[in-house]
Amino acid sequence: MKSNIIGLDQEKSTKLVNELNLLLANFQVYYQNVRGLHWNIKGKNFFQLHVKFEEFYTDAQEKVDLIAERILTLQGTPLHTFSDYSKIASVSVGKNISNDNEAVQLVVTSISELLKIERSILNLADEAEDEGTNSMMSDFIAEQEKTLWMMNAWLG
User: Fold this and answer.
1) Which pTM value belongs to this model?
2) Distance CA 127, CA 93 (A)
3) Phi, psi (rounded to 5 degrees) for 8
4) Euclidean distance between CA atoms 43 and 15, whole angstroms
């Protein structure tokens, strides 16, 4: 078995890098979505959602960095162009959304998609005995499940 610099199986790490790049691409689309929602939200819930969307994009920006750094730790190369992101991302792009319900629904569907990818990575990380990636995914999942619950509660 060939190991990488942190002692993990290189072949399993390569699979993780590919999935982490998929997550990175989807987080970049999600980030851009919530950034746009922050800018464009209108209506009676403006003040509440404007602040919430800023919280979401700030958090997403931090997660993007963590994901890219984990890819580098596993000796991979993080994707870093929008053309690469758009080729593989499954999170829907939200354009010109200003309605509160539509905006929150986009967040819900985006986070649901991110959770699917994160759970897949969690399983791969477990198989690779990669506690670093495992821990990161566990943290992301716990936080996003709570956000998903809250956003669904907001939708009624």
Assistant:
1) 0.97
2) 32
3) -95, 155
4) 45
What is the predicted pLDDT for the residue at 1? 85
Residue whose entry in the numeric block shows the structure tokens 């819930």: 45
CA-to-CA distance for 9 and 132, rounded, in angstroms? 14
Residue carrying structure tokens 């959304």: 97
Beta strands in the chain (DSSP E): none
Tokens of 78: 């993080």
Alpha-carbon distances of 24 from 89, 90, 150, rounded to whole Å: 9, 11, 24
Give residues with Cβ within 8 angstroms of 47, minimum separation 6: none
What's the first-to-final CA gap in the chain, in angstroms? 52
Torsion of CA 137, 141, 142, 146, to 10 degrees: 160
76-111 pLDDT, tens digit each? 999 999 999 999 999 999 999 999 999 999 999 999
What's the CA gap between 18 and 128, in Å, rounded? 14
